[in-house]
Amino acid sequence: MSDSLPAPAQAALQAFADQPGWEQRARLLMQWGERLEPLDVAERDERHRVRGCESAVWLVAQRRGAGWQFRAASEARLLRGLLALLLARVDGLPAAELASLDLADWFARLGLSRQLSPSRSNGLNAVLARMRALIAEDGRATDGSPGAGPSENAPPGA
Amino acid sequence: MTLSSPWRTDFPALAALDAQGQTYLDNAATAQKPRAVLKALSAYYLNGAANVHRAQHLPADRATRAFEATRLGVARAFGAASPAQIVFTRGATEAFNLLAYGLERHVGAGDEIVVSALEHHANLLPWQQLAKRRGAQLVVLPLDDRGDIDLAAAAQRIGPRTRVLAVSQLSNVLGRWQPVAELAALARRQGAFSVVDGAQGAVHGRHDLAALGCDFYAFSSHKLFGPEGVGVLYGRETALAALAPWQFGGEMVREADYQDALFHDAPMGFEAGTPPVAGVIGLGAALDYLNGLDALALADHEAALHAALLTGLAGRDGIRLLGEPHTALACFRVDGVHHADLAHLLGEQGIAIRAGSHCAMPLYRRLGLDGAIRVSLAPYTDGDDLQRFFQALDRALELLR
């Protein structure tokens, strides 16, 4: 199924698949984290803060045609790497595909399944939940008006 | 390090964790169980489970005796004059919630509930919410530079409007013994109820609660080497008599009709529904096990381990300890390194520690920190555990810096 992966995801899979040791994986994660497109200071605000993460995480989502573009930031370096791997997989996907995507499987293929386990408080699960909530919310807001312009995320109840 | 623990083999899970490559240093969250507890649990189930207090058959009689033997054991271990002063709950958290509801009628609008700045959420949020329900004020006692509740400030703030004082005996973040006897005396002078959170303190010392002078004291079984799902609430007799029942159902009722009911006094009146019978019996076995240990040797071992932990941390560049812990644990941060990154890499190396704000978010906010790493010790911890931790710490920091 790797043939249907976006190009950045293909690259991630290639890079991580051959890393047997935790040290190599950690180094690679930190390298990937450095590639995250930085957020403006103004974007690192409460509006974009993802609740439920031990370390601060910000998620900015923008609709781009039928798909979504995400940008994310964190204070923790390894989490930045995990976010980069997440974005590599989901960026540009149509909403329907994103909602049904098996992300546990994605991280398992990268050899990082432990990072997604329910007991972990690193926030990856919270980021996924937030992405899905934003898309669901946007789906409701723009119901019956396809092709609505780009919308930016706001936390529920904001 | 040659710190070996003569008690390690009493805890079968330690060998299992060793085999899994896991070094367990999260004992302040939950402790492993001695074989005696596992045996008591399986004996109860293998010989016939039964509900307590309400049947005439033999299994119920046996279960009730074992259950009540734990109550007596707890009373003896903590200096209570009578087993009727020991109420079983589902955990320390439930004990504080019981108190916050049971004491509600004693708190009115404009009254004050006093807590300290270092409280665990379990001994903060029930009081915060009680204050909200009653229009009362939550007063927060400040800490001094070492991380102790400031007694001089406390003497000022515990006043005639104070109805309840709720403080922790041993901080789960700062690892320091708090002056709870002095604080309880301040509360008593103002006619306020005093509540002590012994969740950490009960594990690291023997306490005579009558001498401590508090009205209530609560702890959890699972940190004291017993099963999860059991808590203990100790109360002075007059303080227990001031509590209103909070959960209603079987067991706690004396007389029931459709429109009205009469309830038992403590302890039964606060144990609605089927209690965690096996868990309570398991806690009894844990206490028996602890009573059989050489208390002096245990204290020496814990002190030596703690000293080794602090020395190892102090010997590494850029490590900042939170406060000056007396015992059992150390929380620390590393300059230029996010605690989540360090926790991630320690986890990769099989080191079970805790990162984050340790259920004390307001305390961390007050310290101006977003979290830390906590290493916490137990009698079965040994020098090899610490050595593995320090090796892993060094490798993690090498990668991160």
From TrEMBL, chain A:
Top-level taxon of the source organism: Bacteria
Domain Fe-S metabolism associated span(s) in chain numbering: 14-133
Transmembrane spans: none
Region (Disordered): 139-158
InterPro entries (alphabetical): Fe-S_metab-assoc_dom
Family named by the database record: Belongs to the SufE family.
The protein's name: SufE family protein
Lineage: Bacteria, Pseudomonadati, Pseudomonadota, Gammaproteobacteria, Pseudomonadales
TrEMBL record, chain B:
Alphabetical list of Gene3D superfamilies matching this protein: Aspartate Aminotransferase, domain 1, Type I PLP-dependent aspartate aminotransferase-like (Major domain)
Keywords: Pyridoxal phosphate, Transferase
Gene Ontology BP annotations: cysteine metabolic process
Pfam families in the record: Aminotran_5 (PF00266)
Class of this enzyme: transferase
Catalytic activity: (sulfur carrier)-H + L-cysteine = (sulfur carrier)-SH + L-alanine
Family note: Belongs to the class-V pyridoxal-phosphate-dependent aminotransferase family. Csd subfamily.
Official protein name in the record: cysteine desulfurase
